[in-house]
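Ligand-bound model needed. adenosine-5'-triphosphate.
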Amino acid sequence: MDAIVSLCRRRGFVFPSSEIYGGLGSTYDYGHYGVLMKNNIRSLWLQAMVQERDDIVALDSAIILNPRVWEASGHVGGFVDPLVDCRTCKLRFRADQLDQASCGRKPSKRPGETPDCDLTEARQFNLMFTTQVGALEDESSLAYLRPETAQGIFINFKNVLQLARRKPPFGIAQVGKSFRNEITPGNFLFRVREFEQMEMEYFVPPADAERWYRYWIDQRFDWYLAHGIREENLRKREHSAEERSHYSSGTTDIEYRYPIGWSELEGVANRGDYDLTQHTEHSGTKLEFVGEGGERYTPYVVEPAVSIERIFVAMLVDAYHEEVVAERDRTVLRLHPAIAPVKAAVLPLIPRSAEMVEKARGLYEHLRHVLAVEYDDSGQIGRRYRRQDEIGTPYALTIDEQTLADDTVTIRDRDSLAQERISIASAREHLLDRLAAPWRPPGPG
Ligand code: ATP
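Prediction:
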């Protein structure tokens, strides 16, 4: 993980937030390449979930909702972690994760294992951030930053049913920031207090829920494979009955083999009719489906839920390679081309050559209308290649002496390092074709 964190910083993907003020625990800011890569993850998720489907529509609900939403959903009463404090080292731990924590005084020991440790009883701590709406600071103005995007979907169930003229099975997809006052955040972006969730609630006739639950587990698993994650680093883990939320009749984590070990990347849950029933009871608005023949029922919900952050880390970990090529060290991000922040770099071999620069700028202008491309004329060509390798750019187009004679350029492949000559006139189509071709990570993991 350290190598990834350091590359992210060095190449401007991700910075610790508020750094000039000493930072704020587990909060990060994204630089240029980080933003481009996050945008790619988000738009590929939306493409698979909304654009390429007839049965799913998009939604963007507010971050601050009526606080009664969170009473109905069970978050006010139940979105809690059990906490213990150590009176000696003053650190706070999750009571259910003491076996993974380190004692503040003796990091080789677990909290409670040394004679000096003095742990309190476990107390329940609500993970929702509170805020105030309006000028008055009293109970009546109390509100919450949403800890998940799903509830914004459930409370809009009736709107979508009526206005988007849908009937089960159908889904509503949403991407947006969620906030959790995590007690033990960390492991870079894996557990942060502010993250971008991508959730889809799929409403189905109750009798079909189990089938759709299996279907979405497979769909989401395959989405990761199609976007370059190595199969050996991905697995499905079904929760035991004790582990599941009380309303869920099935939950499966899609786990990734992070540097911290196998951990939840995405969760797929069969939530039954819990959410729609709760909001019906608390709001007095019936959230049910009424068919043309008059039959009525409360749909069951199957939910795939993930954060861009967990995908971002998984993709970087999967793509990161250090290798020796022609006796030189090379660090390369073998990202799927659709995920890579920059698709191609345009490089004049000799930056002092006005003719090469002119050709390169011309090609760059021609490409940038359709693709995220970068122009770079600073430093030795080898260094420029290495820079592009580190940010995962799949192709580099180099303008050299021969370009001036016959209007061809070399195209260098990040993964195979093979170089081929193509004409400038065909470069755009050539690149678009290569980028659209199926891609699997080369070589063993
Ligand atoms: P965990 O057990 O790891 O805390 P969770 O089971 O509480 O996760 P869910 O409530 O199911 O997570 O949230 C759905 C998804 O949102 C997770 O699969 C994960 O991708 C993402 N997610 C949840 N909490 C965080 C966080 N603090 N930082 C980044 N992503 C998160």
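The chain is about 30% helix and 30% strand.
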